[in-house]
Amino acid sequence: MSSSVLIVDDDPAFQSLAGRLLADCGLAVAGLVDTAGGAMEAAGRLRPDAVLVDIGLPDGDGIALARELAALPWRPRILLTSSNADAAGPSEVRRSRAEGFIPKSQLPNAELDRILGARSP
Q: What structural domains does the chain harbor?
């Protein structure tokens, strides 16, 4: 069974690229949203196994959103991303409770199946 991933990013071109990268790794796209507010609503409705979160969202901070998402009862895995390679350091990632941070330019080379895939029982 493949893991489902919610993509939270306000750039439609990046949403499309991320969707293809996830599919290539055997991960299913649960949904696409472009705001922090939309992310919380979609996460509650779709209950994804993981969420790919852009740090720079038009209505909020992706790091703060990651903290909220990580606190959901089913504890989805969170991966932060940004076009700014310096957008999140190790301390921000720890505080956000995300699995990590990967700049958008490096996403095609990331092991998305390992980072966002289903946890071992």
A: 4-116 (3.40.50.2300)
For residues 87 and 55, the answer to whether their CB atoms sit within 8 Å is: yes
Q: Residues 63, 42, 5, 115: what is their CA dihedral angle, to the nearest 10 degrees?
A: 30
How far apart CA 46 and CA 55 sit, in angstroms, is 21
Q: What is the pLDDT of residues 81-119, one digit of tens each?
A: 999 999 999 999 999 999 999 999 999 999 898 888 865
- Residue 50: strand, helix, or coil: strand
Q: How much is the pLDDT for 118?
A: 64
Radius of gyration of the chain (CA): 13
Closest by CA to 63, choosing from 50, 79, 77, is 79
Beta-bridge partners for 57 = 60
